[in-house]
From TrEMBL:
Name this polypeptide is given: Acetaldehyde dehydrogenase (Acetylating)
Matching InterPro entries: Acetaldehyde_DH_acetylating, Ald_DH/histidinol_DH, Ald_DH_C, Ald_DH_N, Aldehyde_DH_dom
CDD domains in alphabetical order: ALDH_F20_ACDH
Domain Aldehyde dehydrogenase: 12-272
Length: 507
């Protein structure tokens, strides 16, 4: 007898959540020292298997580059651990003696982790480590196209955690994920927080689940080569970044904007770095491969593929050592395939005749699909960098560094993270690089430090309030009297007292 695969997936999810809830209640009683010991063991085990899991991910998904996925796995394990290892996440985490406020940390409970196909193992490491560091349990729904490698990454983490003393069930997963199971996971009564990394539809589902959720938006990242930049150095960084894991990181540059007066030298350096420039006919063929249906919909078959492979899909012959496919472009929109987010080594190149035009192009690219995410800038003018930092609707602006790995913290001082918030610009609850601190609740113990005298109400306040309508009535009658008689010899106060006596007589 065969069982429905969706029902099996849902049942597996329910069992994982049930075990996670029981395990988490035990786990939250652990000391800071024990938690830190477990996290260290998990990070070490994950780091040791970086190459094995990188190869497994490329074989299963057909996306990316093994050597680059190794680096991503190392960032998701070692670098994430280094960034969180000294954080206090148990008991008293802060004490302000002057203001007499003491802060205590407590966990959310069970975390639902949604993992993308583009970064299936590094994101699994990252979400597991920040969950364990904060005494949360985690249940993961992998992407169906990357389920084997994601589950293998979680098994490695789980084995290390349990051997280090964590309770069984603290890390759970759906081995055969389905959309119904993922949807129910996010709405499950025992799930306390959602960490969603994936497509726009998935993130919207997380936000509409009725649970607290961290979701991230798309990253149509412009990279601006400003006229003062070191062109040769900038081009090398952009090419290395765009081809890193074949463009599968959401913070990867998506469109080059270059000042007109350095356009020719930039094109020359791009060609010297392995870029192939498409002519007008080749550009049309490539547009049909990037987005066959138009309307901003990316062809998933090109995601994470090499430039020669994508060129072959379009019927274009390029040298085998081609790293990038580039076409000059002057339009931006959902029906302009080169201008949308492309998780592949494909670039449009825009030439800007002025600083204002460069800003306009960057803004339009962000508005198309990267608002709130990241902008990359190459410049030697700090005033330009600060101006872009002030004016651009992004949550991180990386300068003179590869955007793909700079935004996730590998080459910058930003927090090491595989989930990058887009803030209110992108409809997200945070603009931060998500880390352990986002999975903590803080309770505060506050002593009184200021004396405040609370005044007592005056005795006649209520009386005045209750007689306000009567007072108004007297004033109105007095006004009418003065309008109808010669007021030369009348005293207003005398008239007012007479009216008041008459009213009281007839009440």
């Amino acid at each position: 007898m065969e069982f429905d695969s969706d029902l099996q997936s849902i049942q597996e999810m329910r069992g994982a959540v049930k075990r996670a809830k029981v395990a988490q209640k035990k786990f939250e009683e652990f000391s800071q020292e024990k938690i830190d010991y477990i996290v260290k063991k998990v990070a070490d085990a994950a780091f040791e298997q970086s190459e094995f899991l990188a190869r497994m991910a490329v074989e299963e998904t057909g996306m990316g580059v093994v050597e680059h996925k190794i680096i991503k796995n190392q960032v998701g394990s070692r670098d994430v651990y280094e960034s969180i290892k000294d954080e206090k996440t148990v008991g008293i985490v802060n004490e302000d003696r002057e203001r007499k406020v003491t802060e205590f940390a407590y966990p959310f409970g069970v975390i639902a982790g949604i993992i993308p196909t583009t970064n299936p193992t590094s994101t699994a490491f990252f979400k597991t480590l920040i969950s364990l560091k904060t005494r949360n349990a985690i249940v993961v729904s992998p992407h169906p196209y990357a389920a084997k490698c994601t589950v293998e990454a979680l098994k490695i983490c789980n084995k290390a955690a349990v051997e280090a003393g964590a309770p069984e069930g603290i890390i759970g997963w759906i081995s055969k994920p389905s959309m119904p199971a993922t949807t129910e996971l996010m709405k499950h009564k025992d799930v306390d927080l959602i960490l969603a990394t994936g497509g726009g539809g998935l993130v919207k589902a997380a936000y509409s689940s009725g649970k607290p959720a961290y979701g991230v938006g798309p990253g149509n990242v412009p990279v601006y080569l400003e006229k003062s930049c070191n062109v040769k150095q900038a081009v090398k960084m952009v090419v290395d970044s765009k081809t890193f894991d074949n463009g599968t990181i959401c913070a990867t540059e998506q469109g080059i904007v270059v000042d007109q007066n350095i356009k020719e030298v930039t094109i020359r350096e791009l060609k010297n770095s392995g870029a192939y420039f498409l002519d007008s006919e080749e550009k049309k063929k490539m547009e049909d491969v990037i987005s066959p249906l138009r309307g901003g919909k990316l062809n998933p078959k090109i995601v994470g593929r090499t430039a020669p492979k994508i060129a072959e899909m379009a019927g274009i012959t390029v040298p085998n050592d081609t790293r990038l496919l580039i076409a000059e472009e002057n339009q931006i929109g959902k029906d302009i395939p080169f201008s949308i987010e492309k998780l592949a080594p494909i670039f449009p190149l825009y030439a800007a005749k002025s600083e204002e035009e460069a800003k306009r192009i960057c803004l339009e690219l962000l508005e198309l699909g990267g608002r709130g995410h990241t902008l990359s800038l190459h410049t030697n003018d700090d005033k330009v960098a600060k101006m872009y930092g002030h004016e651009m609707p992004v949550s991180r602006l990386v300068v003179n560094t590869p955007s793909s790995i700079g935004a996730v913290g590998a080459t910058t001082g930003l927090k090491a993270s595989m989930t990058l918030g887009c803030g209110s610009y992108g409809g997200n609850i945070t603009s931060d690089n998500i880390t352990a601190s986002h999975l903590l609740n803080i309770k505060r113990l506050a002593y009184g430090i200021k004396d405040v005298e609370i005044p007592k109400p005056s005795e006649n306040r209520v009386v005045e309030s209750s007689n306000s309508s009567e007072s108004n009535e007297i004033d109105e009658i007095v006004d009418q009297v003065f309008q109808k008689v010669d007021t030369k010899d009348l005293d207003p106060q005398v008239v007012s007292k007479i009216v008041e006596k008459v009213l009281k007589q007839y009440q």
